Amino acid sequence: MAEWDIQKLEEKYRDTWPAMFEADPDEREKFYLNVAFPYPSGAMHVGHGRTYIVPDVIARFWRMQDKNVLFPMAFHVTGTPVIGISSRIAKGDPETVRLYRDLYRVPEDVLARFGDPMTIVQYFARDYERIMHRCGLSIDWRRRFITVNPQYSKYIEWQYAHLKEGEHVVKGVHPVKYCPSCDNPVGDHDLLEGEKAEIMKFTLILFEWQGAKIPCATLRPETIYGVTNLWANPEVTYLRAEVDGEAWILSREAAYKLEMQDHTVEVTGEVSGAEIVGSKASHPLCGEVPVLPAAFVDPDVGSGLVMSVPAHAPFDYIALRDLQEQGEFTGVTPVAIITSEGYGDIPAKDAIERAGITHQLDPRMDEVTREVYGAELLHGTLLANCGDQAGKPVKQARDDVAALMLEDYGSKVMFEFDTQNVVCRCGGRVYVKILHDQWFLQYSDPAWKAQVHEQIDEMKIVPQEVRAEFDRTVDWLKDWACTRRVGLGTKLPWDQNWIIEPLSDSTLYMAFYTIAHHIKKIEPEKLTPEVYDYIIYGTGNPTTVPRETLDAIRAEFLYWYPYDYRFSAKDLISNHLTFQLFHHRAVMEEDKQPQGMVIFGMGLLNGAKMSSSKGNVVLLDDALNEFGPDTVRMFLVGSAEPWQDFDWRNELVIGAKKQIERFWNTVSEGIAVEENDGREIDGWLISRLQHRIEHTTLALQNFQTRQALQEAFFGIEADLKWYRRRLPTIAPGSAAIKELCSVWVRLLAPVVPYTSEELWHQLGHEESVAFARWPVADAAKIDEKTELAEEFLARTVEDIESIVRIIQMEPRAVNLYVAPAWKRQVFSIIAGAADPKKAITLVMADKDLRSRGKAAADAAKQVTKFIHRLPPELVETIAAHDLDEVAVLTAAKEFLEREVKVPVRILEAEGSGEMKADAALPFKPAIVIE
Q: What is the three-class DSSP state of 713?
């Protein structure tokens, strides 16, 4: 028997497979799945591995079910990320150079050419494809493209022409994420840090201060009625500036931000924070208040000065308390303005004291703040000291006071991120900027939103619970800046000064896959919008491409589209996955809408989130070298269900390698065993195998790849372990093993294709296991009674072993007392009872059982307790079959004595005279150890 050598198997099959998976339309039912294409700007890690391996398992499964499966791949390179990387490498940025030289191990001579962004793209796209080949992915590589191919750009131009025609792309004025270094709007994919940062709308409340205004940014303008003081940082030097013609005091950072948000800012001088502290400021709605010192005030947040509402803001309360405990500003008293359920007059004080917080730096302060704000927003009402707002719910008053401030009190709007440290891939800081001539996708359109909600209702989504996340995303999505000034990508067809940004040009590429291998053969200038109209809609009369060519391309599109399932990560629900639903609804016909999605969890490494920039990754190439592709696949598939987070741990990966070796050795041994007449236990093994087939198939149909592996590997291995225990010691195996081996290899082929391919050929098959027929459970081979008998034996052996361990003595013999027939009748009655609480009543309703008096009542109690401990399906099977337990135990006497290594006697409990025999129940004989 040859040893398992995954590296040799990879070399043998890796380069022969790709041509096998080129999928063309035929008479079979199609199954089209796709996955978010990668951005090849760095090396693949094991998190990427799971992203592509899990869909491959599903693709291989449906291919073996005789579906015509399309699994394509492309590379996404548009936008600024790769330009930012190129720029940092060209400048010799030490962190970037270290990442690419030391972690990604890019050769020095290649790294020297990374000043050209396309060199980076080409290098990593080739590397991704090489590694995907190594992983055994069953991809149709003919359809490969990168998103800067001119043919793809023509497709994007066609898409955007239709979006504009449908009034889904509009020019407007909006706050956007902006990188001054790149002089460009940026999206999440353009960011090194702060990918999830949201733009928040703050109200700047203006306080009078010595002939100038002090602006304070707030999300809760209704709390103006409870302001007791302002906070200023005495260590900060503030600016005096003319903002939109008014004299303001604000931080240098705030002045810069406001300049980017349509405000004119002219610096006229400076004033130290120490000068401001101790002075007075005023606002008509709260009166005159002091300015107090606070080192916690960050000049980079809001205006750099803060209004304080200590009754309702935990940070303000604890800061004021700390000052007053030092004997300072003792005359400042919190002013309550909101009543909400669960809190007293000073909610901030209640929340801090309940949490046991003693200082400002306690990490729970953010949580306590969210708790108070959340409670007040949901259930709070403004008190009588709030003027015209008294009695209003906080949620309404917040909006009403914001409008009031803007209309009557000179307030202005300021936009800020909900998190700091938003950094572009170029290394520059990102700010919020108001753009005027920017093009936006109008995701705020209620009619468009309604169409997408309808699509979400109709789609199959796995797991089901993320459906609500899609709906939430659709509800809060605002207009999206879809163009950039710089970067790689397609120019906006009607405004060549703009380039379509990366998230906005990757919404319909799933349809492009279906025709990509044809389109790439056509010169870009011939791919007019009319050509794509004909291919997608069947309309018009394009003349730049022969009609027969167009008909063939359209036929392929119609065969494959819509896609059946898309696989992608849960963090893309908030943008890409939802965007593509909007675009399908706007551009594609009703019968071409997405059919399903499978949403992935995240990847962890030894319990921590994977991050290439922080070096907390295992490169996929390294994992393949160390463990082999089948091991990597088996671990990634079996460590968690696709929608759960997985945790890569080397010691567990080694376990997966050992499991594949056992599979290889078992099947290799099974192939070598000569066929014989078989044994009774063979029927049990083949019967169990039908369940494994059925459960594995169902799990894969439901994308439960981990559950499928539990059945197809661990379940079958457990069955084999029992089978070997039951065989006489002189028998090495049987013909049933060969049948099992054929099934087992096919069940595991989607997960461990290299190993399965070799074993399939050793089993005598010429065709690839990738196209072998998936096993189908044969009901005729299921023998419930034999399975029940073996389950009974296994449980009995386990009970004997448990008792021997407890008594801690060397047994001389084991006596098994089998329950009488009347107790089996009790079991059947209770098992079939609709209400288990009435078990004794039902038993005693039987005349024969009632005649047994207390014995029947006791048996009913014991049986009820026993049934509660058994799986429901086992209870049903026991009740359905009158198992002759004496016959089963007698036939297995030799086996039992071999297992317990002492004589075993099988006895009838009733009339035995043994007191402990009274405990015998159906499926649980009384065990007496001598």
A: helix
Burial of 119 (0-12, 13-18, 19+ CB in 10 A): middle
Summarised one tens digit per residue, pLDDT across range 836-877 is 777 778 888 888 888 888 888 888 899 989 999 999 999 999
Please say whether the beta carbons of 781 and 893 come within 8 A. no
CB 251 within 8 A of CB 300: yes
What confidence score (pLDDT) does residue 716 get?
Answer: 97
Tokens representing 333 are 């008293």
Region of 431 (left: φ > 0; alpha: ψ -120 to 50; beta: rest) is beta
Distances (CA, A) of 686 to 729, 741, 928: 20, 11, 34
pLDDT at 209 over 90: yes
Closest CA to 70 of 134, 145, 141, 129: 141
653 with 713: CB under 8 angstroms? no
Residues 502 and 489 sit within 8 Å (Cβ to Cβ):
yes
- Does residue 240 sit in helix, strand or coil? strand
- List C-alpha distances in Å: 598 to 86, 117, 571, 712: 34, 33, 13, 22
The yes-or-no verdict on residue 408 having pLDDT over 90 is yes
Quick one: tokens of 861? Answer: 């109690």
| Token code pair at residue 214 | 């002090």
Tokens, residue 81: 């990320």
Q: For 858-908, what is the HEC assignment?
A: HHHHHHHHHHHHCCHHHHHHHHHCCCCHHHHHHHCHHHHHHHHCCCEEEEE
pLDDT tens column, 142-181: 999 999 999 999 999 999 999 999 999 999 888 888 989 8
The H or E element spanning position 429 is none
Instruction: Write out pLDDT tens, residues 254-313.
Output: 999 999 999 999 999 999 999 999 999 999 999 999 999 998 899 999 999 999 999 999
Beta-carbon neighbour count of residue 807 at 10 Å?
10
Taking Cα atoms as reference points, which of 214, 395, 238 lies closest to residue 291? 214
Please report which helix (H) or strand (E) contains residue 663, including its range: helix 650-672
Total count of residues recorded for the chain: 930
Kindly compute the dihedral angle of the four CA atoms of residues 822, 824, 827, 833, in this order, to the nearest 10 degrees: -80
Closest CA to 878 of 775, 797, 790, 785: 785
How far is 228 from 316, CA to CA, in rounded Å?
10
User: Any idea what DSSP says for residue 216?
Assistant: E
Can you tell me the distance from the alpha carbon of 360 to that of 875, in angstroms, rounded to the nearest whole number?
A: 60
The distance of Cα 181 from the centroid of its chain, to the nearest Å, equals: 33
> CB–CB of 647/604 below 8 Å?
yes
DSSP conformation letters of 281-300: EEETTTEEEEEEE-TT--TT
Q: How far is CA 147 from CA 38, 39, 70, 182, 588, in A?
A: 11, 10, 20, 21, 20
Amino acid identity, residue 107? P
Report the mean per-residue pLDDT for the chain. Answer: 93
Query: Which of 883, 660, 693 lies closest to 778 in space, CA to CA?
Result: 693
The answer to whether the Cα torsion of 7, 8, 13, 18 is positive or negative is: positive
pLDDT tens-place string over residues 504-532: 999 999 999 999 999 999 999 999 999 99
Structure tokens at 544: 């730049």
Q: Coil, helix or strand for 342?
A: coil
Amino acid, single-letter form, for residue 634: M
Q: What angle do CA 382, 387, 389 make, to 5 degrees?
A: 45
Query: Using CA atoms, how far apart are residues 682 and 688, in angstroms rounded to an integer?
Result: 10
Q: Tell me what the mean pLDDT of segment 723-733 comes to.
A: 70
∠ CA 279-280-283, nearest 5°, is 155
pLDDT value at position 589? Answer: 97
Q: Which tokens hold the place of 323? A: 């000052």
pTM for this entry: 0.84
Give the containing element (helix H, strand E) for 846. Answer: none
Here the tokens at position 668 are 């290799």
CA nearest to 469, candidates 593, 609, 592, 575: 575
